[in-house]
Description:
The structure is a single chain. The protein is of the alpha/beta class. It has one domain: Rossmann fold, CATH 3.40.50.300. Helices cover 47% and strands 11% of the residues. The chain contains 13 helices and five strands. It has a five-stranded parallel sheet, with helices on both faces. Helix 3 runs parallel beside helix 12. The structure holds adenosine monophosphate (AMP) and magnesium ion. Magnesium ion (MG) binds next to loops.
Amino acid sequence: MSEPRRSVRDLLRVPAGGTGFDLGAIHPRTTPGLPRAGVVGTDPKAWARARVQEIGVELGRQQEMLFASAKVDPASGRRLLLVLQAMDAGGKDGTIRRVAGTMNPLGLQIRSFGRPTEKELSHHFLWRIRRALPTPGYVGVFNRSHYEDVLVPRVESLVPEHTWRARYDEINEFEQELADGGVTLLKVFLHISYDEQLERLRSRLDDPEKHWKYEPADVDTRARWADYQAAYAEALARCSTSGSPWFVVPANRKWYRDWAVASLLRETFAGMHLTYPAPRFDVDRERRRLLDMRPEPAEV
Ligand code: AMP
Ligand code: MG
């Protein structure tokens, strides 16, 4: 099966420093990097779903190598952290289920961030984030993140402008600190359109089994769509660095979204150059010890 010529990372990366970045120019229904029709066939959705399963096998192997490496070298601090951001109904939960769900649950640490509690608000905005970082050897997933702190407080004027503006630099420093501590970050914005959000919120209202997912406040947030898009555009531009870039995944089509995020994870793992660690024991000697131990020891 032929692969896309350019990596998905290259296609979806927000340029460092955000030079010339225009979120509005990225169409949420497009499918950058999807192989040509001859490869994908007549049913791109089925193709993408099958491919996600295949990539998932590779992700599981990488995840195991990460876990094994950290076991023999805990000081390296190595771990992978997928940060997911999106507007309401943007597909964060579905991406976690379908893409992170292909990995081994034993090696995953998934955290969601809602409105800060009183206690969280009494601390610096990065306090709750630091406490939720994945353990070395694990793959972490953040369902929302510290980026909420340059979105909601800005749009809802919860803090003065100088406070949220200062956070871009604080976030960049924090992420540099994470990189120094062995954390490989993969920051993904799932980009849906205003119309697609309407469809998804409406389907939550139409289906009694989805009412639990619906929040009346989502409509108030939707009313500020343009403000949120502007806040996202600036956050992505200001906090896309060469060490920790942002990726924008067009996410109206769920099958493309899942394929793109799985591909980004696979490429990110590949860049970590993980290997299975060498044994810290003599394999031949252990094999002899194991096999020579016959017959079954007598019961005491
Ligand atoms: P959900 O992801 O549907 O559970 O919703 C979580 C809600 O918490 C969303 O409306 C987020 O925007 C909001 N939220 C998360 N983090 C923050 C934050 N730091 N400040 C304000 N609101 C936040
Ligand atoms: Mg919600």
